[in-house]
Request: fold
Amino acid sequence: MHGRVKVRSTAEQEEARKKERGKKLLTYKGAMSRVQSKRDDGQFDEEALEITAKLLVRNPDIATLWNYRKEILQFMRENKEDGDLVCSREKSLTETCIKENPKSYCAWNHRQWIMEWLGDRADWSEELGLCNRFLDLDERNFHCWDYRRFVVSRGGATPREELEFTTAKIENNISNYSSWHYRSKLLPLIHPNESMEVKALVQAGGGETLQPDRETVQPERDTVQPERETVQPNRETEQPDRETEQPDRGTVQSNRESMQPDSETMHSDMETVQSDWEIKHLNKATTRPNWETISGELDLVRNAYYTDPNDQSVWFYHRWLLGPLSFLSNRPSLRSVCARRGHHIAASLSAPIGPESITLTLDESLAPGAWRSLDVSSDKLSSVWFQDFPDNYSDDVEVNIRVSIDSNESPIETKSISIAAGNLSEVFWRSPEEDFDASNDVVERTANLLEEELEHLKELGEMEPDNKWILLTIVYVMRAIDPVKYIKDIEDRLLKLTEVDNLRVNYYRDMQSKYLIENQLMQCGRQTESGGDQSYRTDCSLSGLGLTRLYHCQYFLPVTHLDVSWNNLSNLNGVSMLFHLERLNADDNCLVEIGDIRGLKELRFLSLQHNQLDYSEQLEPLKGLQLKECLLSGNGAATI
Reply:
């Protein structure tokens, strides 16, 4: 223990301790053997309850013992024994075990099982009091927070009372991610946003349910919002041996299906707490509170980040709070449709979807083919889908093509194009500017709120110039206000982040690459705006931008000539989507792998000069391509 003086023990003392541990181990093994034998023989009696209780008090994390107790209790209930007395005894045992180990998955789970068994006879106010006591001891015990949400969902408290509870916990200690996360679930219930100003948000968000939160979060994620706790079993604690489990016996056999299994799924009920209360209240609420609440909530957050600018829980909540103010929707929308006779019909989208959500119609008839993807990262979700062009259409016949994005069998977006008789291809392309720049859509009071928050962050940044959380949040807010206006400021702060947070240098460089490509796409959209949907560019240069990764490749679907030379790319992941590509220049990068580009059947020119392709195996993806010219000088594998 911390602060204790280490006292050296003699050899005799160590030998005595070793013998004592040996005796305890023999007792433990004997008790476990006795329990297993009684369970195998279908003995569901008081002796089994007594033995398991003694074992669990010493080690509450043996899931097999808890499940055996469930079987015994089920047996007793069927034999008309006093259920209230049994449950009272179990509640006392679980409380003792939780005191022994306040973060025992099994003990909390068993208590929830008992309370559900009690049903209408349960005293939820007593359970809320238990949560209060344990959170007073450890206010960041997410096991207790999970159980508290279960209690509240059964009527233990109102959302407003719970919000006041989180406020008190935050005022006592701002470094309490569970409180901040719970607050993000409660505010939309109490102050729902019914304004038309968040129509894009409503489209993007969908319903959320109360989920356990995550006590430890990773700062390097690009899109970070408070999310549910992913509860995993403690691998260091004893887990049941599945091979030793025997078929169930006696009258409880039919009931065991309703019990928690002995494996890792023991805690599954605690992972997802879904109740009538949540369905009634939470699923009908928007995912964010109204603007007045956001404005007031920012005062609490500012007090927190001025108090401790290094506390990550505050910054993640701040990110969630300001999330809707950017108005950028992640709802999939059609960005291009390309059709070429004798080849394919392809569609690109702003966000990945599955093939079941996109429909192709030819001359008012459903296309007979199936959607396929060239996205090597997934065959279930992709931003680009294509089908073979039917061979029963002659070149002198007009073909009417309609692509629809469907949701629950209802089309939410449709685009039609026609290949005129005598023409070989047709392309629809929509500017992606709206996907990355929402500054024109932000209403005045929202813009003012963001500008005001930016000033607070800059002021704090002057006092804490090397604080990564402040720098990163300023980048996000500037990007939400106007990515063009603040393009140089964003670049400078990302560079600063690589200096002050060198463990995440690659993350910030990838982030910068993402923003640079988005800026290029916005600029491309402005240049072609006068031409309407049919105006698009077949050549694209991303040369010399310092890119470390290629983002948003689906927006380049119509491109036939792509130049990504003089960057810092280590691979060409994403290029596989661009099956219109005829020329690709990737000279002077840091390529150590090409990626799977075997689907680029139109590619005729490829230049990979001055990279790090030192082995012939790295050139395997080039096999099968119908290249007319391939330049490989400046690589170790070039002479192979």
